[in-house]
Design brief:
- The chain has 158 residues and is α+β, with helices and mostly antiparallel strands.
- It contains three helices and five strands; from the N terminus they run αβαββββα.
Length: 158
């Protein structure tokens, strides 16, 4: 009897510890053979970077495809909490006009910036409807009941 109580207590304790383990999510670029930091400045080209790392996560919009970004992030979520970003890696590879690597820069989670969202709303023309107007607004606008002659897919009588 004493042994079964200790077994049940051990199971409850282990279940409680398992419930505290985070769910880890890894998203984005995953380096397999070559890390983005191993790219050599001046010797590698767009073709060699593409062969070693694959296609980038994002490319520059304003510099005509001369900057490639390889982005990855790891998130953690505990049982009833919101998921948070535990680690983020952004590797920026810059190319010169000839297509050679001009620079490699690695950015982390600390290099990010918080952007404050503007909560202003654009006003719309028209009037605000009350709840009763919204509920009763379509009364009387519906279709009349269908007859056998209006049913779609039926042949017309000749």
């Amino acid at each position: 009897m004493n042994r079964s109580k200790s077994l049940v207590a051990a199971l409850v304790l282990s279940a409680g510890l398992v419930a505290c383990a985070p769910v880890v999510g890894v998203h984005g670029f995953q380096a397999i053979d070559v890390k983005p930091a191993d790219i050599a400045i001046g010797t590698d080209t767009k073709e060699t970077v593409l062969a070693q790392l694959g296609s980038p996560s994002a490319t520059s919009v304003f510099e005509d495809d001369s900057v490639w970004y390889y982005i990855s992030q790891t998130t953690r979520k505990y049982t009833f909490n919101r998921a948070f970003v535990a680690q983020r890696n952004v590797t920026e590879i810059t190319f010169d006009g000839a297509g050679n690597v001009a620079g490699v820069r690695t950015l982390g989670l600390d290099d990010g910036q918080e952007v404050a969202m503007n909560r202003n709303e654009t006003p719309t023309r028209g009037r605000e409807l009350t709840i009763i107007e919204q509920l009763l607004g379509n009364v009387g606008r519906g279709q009349l009941p269908r007859t056998d002659e209006d049913v779609p897919g039926q042949r017309r009588p000749d």
